[in-house]
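Any chance you'd type out a single protein's sequence alongside its tokenized fold?
>
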Amino acid sequence: MTLLSVPDMSCGHCKASVEAALAPLPGMAPVEVDLTKRQVTVAGPASEAVKALDAIGFPAREVA
């Protein structure tokens, strides 16, 4: 599992957008979004998830 920090994610609409961007990507499911911590957990590689989130305006980084 890969944990990402998505600091600009702040509301339910943001959460839905993040889920919609990541869920269709091969190997990402399950996508778990923690809005309170502003973190996302995915099964796939961080690089692909970060690229997808950057494309929709949510800069992300992998949490070590």
